[in-house]
Each structure stands twice: as structure tokens, then as C-alpha cells.
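From the methods appendix. Each design record in this collection lists the discretized structure first, followed by the designed amino acid sequence. Records were kept in a plain field format so they could be parsed without special tools. The example shown here is representative of the layout used throughout.

RECORD:
C-ALPHA CELLS (193 positions):
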């Protein structure tokens, strides 16, 4: 035990001295290592460890397009990656306005059936007085070509209600993730075969 500790300390000391003498490497567009080589595959169906669940919840297939701040001037470029869904497809008595955008979304969409350990995630990004974006996705669908489905909901403020901001749904779009060999490998608005 003491011998192992001494060897580990010697290795650590040697590694640090080698790093200290090495010039820093700078690249014009450096990519974080967790994006360049992810430690987990977030599209598998086994029972996930807590560390894999935490990593996939933060960096999984949904991470890139999930907005940190909803900016209406960026919506057009985001919308191009989705198939628009007409809000008139909902019954006329459907509430598209309220103080909780996430609750509105969950009342509108019923996600399809899944197989095994499906992933489901909802994310809300609100910029007070300007906009709100809700993202909803599910992976592991019981479908032979579509593996996952993702929706984007955009809200605009419509005044105050009971001291809370009132939001109105103004646009929604849909993407899908194809099973391997059944279409594009990334989230897409193109059909899976």
C-alpha cells in the first residue's frame, strides 16, 4: 500500500514536470474534449448509471440546440431546422396562453409509445419580458424508422396575470432522429426511411 502511494506520487510529480516544460497548444477553434470524444452513448437502451444519466441529461443528443437564452432575432435560423407545426391543428378551445410555458406544452403534446428505457426531457428558457422557448424530446420510440422526436415551442409575452408574466405560444416545430441506417444520423426535419 505504501509502495503504491509512493509510485503514484512519483508518477504525478513526473507528469507535472513534463507538463510544465511543454508549451501550450492553441487552436483557433478548440473543441471541449467531452464534445470531441463523448464518454457515453446517450442513445443506448440499457439501464443507465447515475453518472451516465447526469452526463446525458446535460450533454446528450439534445444539448446543442437547447437555448441558454431565448433570443427572438435568432429564431429564424433555429426554425429552419424544424418542420413547422400549425397551431390551428389544435382544437379551438385549447389554451395556448398562460403563465407557465412548460405546462402549456405538456398539455398540448402526448409523446408516442417507447421501448425499454426511453429518454424524455423538457427544457425551458425564459428571457423576462422578451421570449420563452420550451424544448421537448423523447428518444427510444417504438417505431421501426424514427428513434426520437423533438419539438420546439416559442412563446411571446402577453402582459401580466396575477403578478406573473403571461405567455402566448406563437410557433412550434418538429424534428426526428432516425434509427441507424434509416436516415440522417443527426436530429433532422428530413423524413426517416
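DESIGN:
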Amino acid at each position: 500500500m505504501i509502495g503504491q502511494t509512493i509510485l503514484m506520487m512519483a508518477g504525478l510529480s513526473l507528469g507535472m514536470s513534463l507538463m510544465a516544460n511543454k508549451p501550450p497548444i492553441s487552436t483557433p477553434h478548440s473543441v471541449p474534449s467531452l464534445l470531441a470524444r463523448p464518454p457515453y452513448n446517450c442513445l443506448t437502451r440499457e439501464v443507465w448509471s447515475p453518472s451516465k444519466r447526469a452526463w446525458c441529461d446535460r450533454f446528450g443528443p439534445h444539448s446543442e440546440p437547447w437555448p441558454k437564452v431565448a433570443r427572438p432575432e435568432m429564431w429564424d435560423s433555429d426554425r429552419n431546422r424544424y418542420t413547422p407545426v400549425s397551431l390551428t391543428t389544435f382544437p379551438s378551445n385549447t389554451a395556448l396562453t398562460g403563465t407557465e410555458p412548460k405546462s402549456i406544452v405538456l398539455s398540448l403534446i402526448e409523446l408516442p409509445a417507447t421501448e425499454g428505457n426511453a429518454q424524455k426531457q423538457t427544457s425551458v428558457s425564459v428571457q423576462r419580458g422578451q421570449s420563452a422557448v420550451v424544448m421537448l424530446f423523447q428518444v427510444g420510440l417504438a417505431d421501426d424508422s424514427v428513434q426520437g422526436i423533438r419539438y420546439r415551442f416559442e412563446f411571446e409575452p402577453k402582459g401580466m396575470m396575477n403578478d406573473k408574466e403571461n405567455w402566448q405560444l406563437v410557433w412550434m416545430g418538429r424534428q426526428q432522429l432516425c434509427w441507424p441506417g434509416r436516415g440522417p444520423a443527426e436530429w433532422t426535419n428530413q423524413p426517416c426511411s
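APPENDIX NOTE: Residues 2-20 form the longest helix (19 residues).
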